[in-house]
Write a structure and sequence with these properties.
Length: 189
């Protein structure tokens, strides 16, 4: 969907689409993989473990994989980014940072995320993390205010002034002067 959106809004291809949704689009930026046969469902999908080679040494996802040159992950695909449009998309800033071993398939695209800071996470990313930890409803019920006391592992006796400085967007205190507090922790069974 990111590829379709960029093609429509940045490249100006208002009809850009996936052939899954519109087989007659004049800008098919997402297409069926050559090995997929829609007439014969079964054994025509790209399945199983596949090697992805990183093409950008500074990309975040490569760092998350321990700076390996490549990774192997499971796939289950019928559609792919149309190689015909990759250069146009990259010229406008889309970063395909992982490709198939032959370089023809775009395996990983990295979306820039400029707003998150260590003490001020971007709301969509924070919401995702909160949902994954099972804390989203409680967070929303507190008017989206972070609270170290809501952490499963909070056991600090820090006073409220330090806690408030740590989580206040208006704080003038340097982050380095504040104590380490675990905000998110996995629930313990």
């Amino acid at each position: 969907m990111a590829v379709i959106e960029l093609a429509r809004t940045v490249l100006g291809w208002t009809d850009a689409q996936s052939t899954e949704f519109d087989k007659n689009t004049t800008h098919p930026v997402v297409i069926e993989m050559p090995e997929h046969n829609p007439e014969q469902m079964g054994a025509t999908m790209r399945l199983g473990k596949r090697k992805t080679v990183f093409t950008d040494n500074s990309c975040t996802i490569k760092k998350l994989y321990g700076n390996k040159a490549s990774v192997e992950e499971r796939h289950r695909h019928r559609y792919e980014v149309n190689p015909k449009y990759v250069m146009d998309l990259e010229e406008k800033g889309l970063k395909f940072v992982g490709r198939s071993t032959d370089g023809q398939r775009m395996e990983i695209l990295e979306l820039e995320e400029y707003l998150t800071r260590p003490m001020f996470p971007s709301p969509p990313f924070l919401g995702l993390i909160m949902a994954a930890c099972g804390k989203l409803e409680a967070f929303i019920s507190r008017n989206c205010q972070l609270s170290p006391r809501a952490s499963y592992e909070y056991d600090s006796e820090e006073d409220d002034e330090v806690t408030q400085a740590l989580y206040s967007r208006d704080s003038k205190s340097p982050a380095t002067a504040l104590p380490e507090i675990t905000i998110f922790a996995a629930p313990q069974n």
